[in-house]
Design a protein that fits this description.
By secondary structure, this protein is mainly alpha-helical. 48% of the residues lie in helices and 5% in strands.
Length: 116
Amino acid sequence: MSLEVKIQAKAESVLASEAQFYGVTPTALVKAIIDKVAVGGLTRDVLQGVDVVSYQDRKRGTPHPSPKHTYQGQRMSLAAISKKTGIPLVTLRTRIYRDNWTEERAFSEPVREYRK
């Protein structure tokens, strides 16, 4: 079997760096990884918790639409809301996705100041 796999630039950069560490080409490194994971029976362990189906139709260079949220009656991305509110994007994501805050609370509650 012969496969052609296209990877994102970030993954490509990581593989190139790791290949350099081992003194091999990125292709040789990928072959070693695939052999160790697939042939070694580790595929299910490595992919545990990964939404593999989402990779099925993913096309390189096709942006995934960011979820839209409502802020002041307008639908916009969290990045846009972050710019408008001054609340860091990572804080908004944490509040909504990890802490399960309502959008209204996440977008209106000020960021706590921490002492240094």
